[in-house]
Design brief:
The complex is a heterodimer. By secondary structure, chain A is an all-beta fold. Chain A is about 0% helix and about 50% strand. In chain A, strands 2, 5, 6, 10, 11 and 12 form a six-stranded mixed sheet that branches. The radius of gyration of chain A is 14 Å and the shape is globular. Chain B is mainly beta. Chain B is about 0% helix and about 50% strand. Chain B has no helices and eleven strands. In chain B, strand 5 and strand 6 form a beta hairpin. Classes of the chains: A mainly beta, B mainly beta.
C-alpha cells in the first residue's frame, strides 16, 4: 500500500523568507501523481501544485516549486517570498494512477510570522 | 459553477443516532471522493465513486458507514449508530477523469460532533 510521510508537524518562518516542506512516499509504482494541497484555517482545501512522476522537470507555480527526487521518493515544496496568506496546513498527497484514490500525509502546519 | 457543496456544515448528534451528509460535486465531475479528517490530521480516505459506481471502500471503514451516489450526481454518506469516535470533519471532493487535469476540488466539509 502507498504511504505518504510528512516529518514536520509544524513550522514557522518570517514573512518574505523561503521555507521548504518535506514529504516522502512509498510506492512500487513507476507512474503516479504527487500533489501539495493547502488548507487555510476554517477554509476548504485547494491544490497548490502537482507533479507527474514521468516528468523529470520540477513543477513550478509562481512562488511555489517542488523538488521531486524520484529515486529517493521525495517530494518537497518550496515557498519563496512567503506571505501571511500562506499560513495554513499543507498536505502532501499521492495518486497511483489517474483513476485511483488520493492518499494524504498527516500535514505540516505552517505559520508565516509578520 | 459554485464548486463542491456539502450539507450540513455542522451536525451535532447524540450517540447512537443516525446521520446523513450530502455532497453536491461540480457538475460533470464523474469522480467523487469522501474523506474523514480529525483535528490536526490529514484526510483519511473513506470511499470513492465513478459516476454511480462505488469503486472502493476503505477497509478501515466500519459497516456502520455507507455511501451512495444513486444518479451519478450528488452523493450521501450515512453513519448509523454514531459513536463518539465518529466525531470528525467529513470532506467531499470531486474531479473530472476524462481530462488530463488531475486536480480534485474539495468542499468545505461537514463537521460532526457526537455527544
Amino acid at each position: 500500500a502507498q504511504t505518504v510521510t510528512q516529518s514536520q508537524p509544524e513550522m514557522s518562518v518570517q514573512e518574505a523568507e523561503t521555507v521548504t516542506l518535506s514529504c516522502t512516499y512509498d510506492t512500487s509504482e513507476s507512474n503516479y501523481y504527487l500533489f501539495w494541497y493547502k488548507q487555510p484555517p476554517s477554509r476548504q482545501m485547494i491544490l497548490v501544485i502537482r507533479q507527474e512522476a514521468y516528468k523529470q522537470q520540477n513543477a513550478t507555480e509562481n512562488r511555489f516549486s517542488v523538488n521531486f527526487q524520484k529515486a529517493a521518493k521525495s517530494f518537497s515544496l518550496k515557498i519563496s517570498d512567503s506571505q501571511l496568506g500562506d499560513t495554513a496546513m499543507y498536505f502532501c498527497a499521492f495518486m497511483k494512477g489517474r483513476d485511483d484514490k488520493i492518499i494524504f500525509g498527516k500535514g505540516t502546519r505552517l505559520h508565516i510570522l509578520p | 459553477d459554485t464548486g463542491v457543496s456539502q450539507d450540513p456544515r455542522h451536525k451535532i448528534t447524540k450517540r447512537g443516532q443516525n446521520v446523513t451528509f450530502r455532497c453536491d460535486p461540480i457538475s460533470e465531475h464523474n469522480r467523487l471522493y469522501w474523506y474523514r479528517q480529525t483535528l490536526g490530521q490529514g484526510p483519511e480516505f473513506l470511499t470513492y465513486f465513478q459516476n454511480e459506481a462505488q469503486l472502493e471502500k476503505s477497509r478501515l471503514l466500519s459497516d456502520r458507514f455507507s455511501a451512495e451516489r444513486p444518479k451519478g450526481s450528488f452523493s450521501t454518506l450515512e453513519i448509523q449508530r454514531t459513536e463518539q469516535g465518529d466525531s470528525a470533519m467529513y470532506l467531499c471532493a470531486s474531479r473530472a477523469t476524462a481530462t488530463e487535469n488531475t486536480e480534485a476540488f474539495f468542499g468545505q466539509g461537514t463537521r460532526l460532533t457526537v455527544v
